[in-house]
UniProtKB/TrEMBL annotation:
Its EC number is 2.7.1.172. This is protein-ribulosamine 3-kinase. The lineage of its organism: Eukaryota, Metazoa, Spiralia, Lophotrochozoa, Mollusca. Belongs to the fructosamine kinase family. Keywords: ATP-binding, Kinase, Nucleotide-binding, Transferase. It catalyses: N(6)-(D-psicosyl)-L-lysyl-[protein] + ATP = N(6)-(3-O-phospho-D-psicosyl)-L-lysyl-[protein] + ADP + H(+); N(6)-D-ribulosyl-L-lysyl-[protein] + ATP = N(6)-(3-O-phospho-D-ribulosyl)-L-lysyl-[protein] + ADP + H(+). GO terms for cellular component: cytosol. It comes from the Eukaryota. One of its GO terms (molecular function) is protein-ribulosamine 3-kinase activity. It is an enzyme of class 2 (transferase).
Length: 313
């Protein structure tokens, strides 16, 4: 038995454990499936020093999505420190394949997820319930943020609660501008962002944004399906604007038009939707730039400059 299996057996109080030979992973983490006396589990690994914080955020994201119960997600079990370095996240194993037959169903379920907190608001008005600090995802959440830090990729997101969505989102971009300046000694991006920031309220005129529980990183690689249902995983959740979750879904493919049609049947597009999508895509280009460099700087600057020019007219 490997040291990893010994650790899992001890921490999960298992009688027996053995590898299934099934594994998975991407550019950030690796993972392995195990059969145990308590059922199939999947363990994700990362050797980075900040992995424990990253997996804690994913654990809480899965817990929140599980509580909302609008779309299928793996049930999180435990975050463990790896004696060899880094950490691991253990969850139930789900046998799944690429999203195909259930794309429309996922669109409807994601819309219902984004409406879930609004429904809690309608039930809680007379009781004036709110969630600022507690980890109770069945209560209405009045603010934008999340109880813990979550990571989009391996970069941490500042999820401290704020009562204004645009202020919260601007803080996310501020983080990435600062990282780009520090990592790449890039000063042009800060000047472009400083010019764009005061113009952004024009994109949110007459919008009443109720905080929605988001997946936070729903690109095609983080969605799949079983024979019966769609599945989403690898979340980087927080409470934010529902439109935010759609931006990365359009960036790298994997979601057909049936997904978006089904979504918008429940949440129609509002005025200014396309420009706000450019703004939210800009965040993800920033995030990829600060992860991988490559050609993402030019895409980030192009979107920022385009919005700057449009909002100046």
């Amino acid at each position: 038995m490997s040291s990893t299996e010994e650790l899992l057996k001890h921490e999960l109080e298992l009688t027996w454990i053995k590898g299934t030979g099934k594994s998975g992973g991407g550019c950030i983490n690796e993972g392995t499936a195990y059969d145990t006396d308590k059922g199939l589990i999947f363990a994700k690994y990362n050797s980075k020093p900040e992995a424990f914080q990253m997996f804690e955020g994913e654990y809480e994201s899965l817990a929140a999505l599980k509580t909302a119960d609008q779309v299928k997600v793996p049930s999180p079990k435990k975050v463990l420190r790896n004696p060899k370095g880094g950490a691991m996240l253990v969850m139930d194993y789900i046998d799944m394949q690429g999203l195909s037959l259930h794309a429309a169903k996922l669109g409807e379920q994601m819309a219902r997820l984004h409406l879930f907190n609004k429904g809690l608001k309608e039930k809680a008005v007379s009781k004036q319930q709110s969630l600022h600090y507690k980890v109770d995802y069945s209560c209405y959440v009045t603010h934008f943020g999340f109880p813990v830090t979550t990571c989009c990729g391996y970069l941490p997101q500042d999820n401290n609660w704020m009562d204004n969505w645009l202020d919260f989102f601007a803080r996310k971009i501020d983080q990435h501008v600062r990282w780009a300046e520090e990592k790449y000694n890039d000063r042009d991006v800060g000047q472009e962002w400083s010019s764009l920031l005061p113009k952004l309220p024009k994109l949110f005129l007459d919008l009443d944004i109720v905080p929605a529980l988001l997946h936070g990183d729903l690109w095609g690689g983080n969605a799949a399906e079983t024979d019966e249902d769609p599945v989403i995983f690898d979340p980087a959740s927080f409470y934010g604007h529902s439109e935010y979750d759609l931006a990365i879904s359009k960036m790298f493919g994997g979601f057909g038009q049936t997904y978006f049609n089904s979504y918008h049947n429940l949440i129609p597009k509002q005025q200014g939707f396309n420009d706000r999508q450019d703004l939210y895509v800009m965040f993800h280009y920033f995030n990829h730039w600060n992860h991988f460099d490559g050609g993402y700087k030019s895409s980030t600057i192009r979107l920022m400059h385009g919005l700057n020019k449009k909002l100046s007219s």
